[in-house]
Amino acid sequence: MARKLALKKLTASDLTLFKWHFQNNPAGKQKAFNLDSRVLVDELYPQLREPAAVPQPRFSIDLYLLGPGMAQSYNLQRKILKQQKNWRLNGEFIDSPEDDPQRYNILLPGDFALFEFSGDVVPGTAKIVLVAQALPVDAGVHRELDRRYPEGSMWLLDEEEIEAVLAVEPLPIGHPLFEWLKTDDLEDAVLGGVIGVEKINRRREGRGITPEEFVSSRQIAEQTGVLGEVLLNEYFDRQLERGNFEWYEWTSSINAVSPYDFRIGPVNGDERLVDAKSTRGGFSNPIHLSLSELRRAVEGRTPYDIYRLYNVVDDCAKMRIAHDVGPVLRSLLDVFETLPAEVSVDAVSVRPEFLDFDEMEFIVSLGDVN
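^ thats the sequence. predicted structure below, dont judge the formating
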């Protein structure tokens, strides 16, 4: 699923959400971040346009504040609510953590807050990275953001835009914004990939990821897998309409433990089994194969194809196909057979380059297919 990202330039009245600023730099009685409805509602959560059952709707959120500078996550409970016509991140004052009592004092009007919201219908979690112009480690990124967004107060973002900023103004390893973008490793880790786990632990100096972040990322990865199958089902439906298939079956929709996702019957061809492997990241992200999938691909009599869906977003993805992967994967089963009887392998991570994927890249989407 597409990440819900936004950028906000902080004003003096926004900063009074922080207790120190309210006491030392008074700019009114507000203790909230103003959230532009054109971004929060029109772009990210259109369901919030619907009439509320209460006059001033409010949603409790799990708030994670990162930065400014190298400061790591500080977790609080706050609310997003509508007051008159304005949406705000509100609640109690935010004080600096006890172990870093001056953390937010350095913030100035014109500093930036990069938001990631989670929640399908309404926001349930907000992760915010604060970028302070007065901190040397943040100054370059702040300068580039200020150059790209000279007018306005809040903007919709995507990962490519943030990557473009970091290409101009690189950050040190361990900076929260650097970590925020490295979602490929996190996606691999929550799916059981040892490479992703090791990379995260190296970058974060053993801090790893929080249980909440793991659960949230795992849910996103599972949703991506479901969406990949939905997109592939749409693709096969189009093949059926165009006369390229005689029939097909979405097997995993009726058998959740099936070692393949689809059965297809191409015109003038034999039945084939299809396993969909979907990630939000790029083609080269590792894919994960269970032992039952490996055995079916290698030992089954029906050719077993892997359809690799990548860069998956809300309604489209890119796709490449590896046909009849059984012979290539046989060497893995041969290795497993040499293990002691008391040891079993549940799954493996495989780089797509290990398999013989066609060079042709398809764009699959809901409603249309190239």
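The chain has a mean pLDDT of 87.
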